[in-house]
Amino acid sequence: MKGSIELYTDGAASGNPGPGGLGVVLIYGNLRKEISEGYELTTNNRMELLAVIRGLQAIRWKNANVIIYTDSKYVSEAVNEKWIFDWEKKQFRKRKNSDLWKIFLKLFRQHAIEFRWIKGHNKNIENERCDRLAVEASRKTNLMIDEGYVNQKGLLL
Q1: Chain mean position to CA 87
Q2: Residue 155: what pLDDT?
Q3: Structural domain for 116, as ranges
Q4: What's the CA gap between 17 and 44, in Å, rounded?
């Protein structure tokens, strides 16, 4: 049986909404992968959730054992407290970021996932690395458009 993949994630937004970024570190045995992306206009919660999504999308096989470390209570509690499943039953009515939650649930169901909340800015080396990746990505000049955020707000591209 394969070992567990450790997935560390963080998101950042300056202004909330404002420019944002995500940072991901995947560790599997002696393999390591880092991912970062920056967006013109988004929110911190969207970046936290999108970081988890990007990390899960980087896993190349199904039924992986994944331990996700996040400093986002928004994400970890939604899953650990099972709120996300109630939101899904109600078709995400009156829920922010439903576009991302729907993507997350498809990925979530492809693996055996455990969420572990960790306190941010508490000297966890990998969480600190994700934070740096997210902040650096949010400060780049060639930022992407978070179309889900723009569309849900009815903003012009």
Answers
A1: 18
A2: 62
A3: 4-153
A4: 8
The tally of domains found in the chain comes to 1
Supply the mean pLDDT for the chain: 94
Positions marked active-site: 10-11, 48, 71, 121, 131
Q: Which amino acid belongs to residue 1?
A: M
**Closest to 117 measured CA to CA, from 84, 59, 75, 85:** 75
Say how far apart CA 78 and CA 86 lie, in whole Å.
10
Query: pLDDT by residue (tens digit) across 52-64?
Result: 999 999 999 999 9
- Per-residue pLDDT tens digits for 104-142: 999 999 999 999 999 888 889 999 999 999 999 999 999
Which amino acid type is present at position 39? Y
CATH of the domain at 42: 3.30.420.10
Nearest to 146 by CA among 45, 78, 76: 45
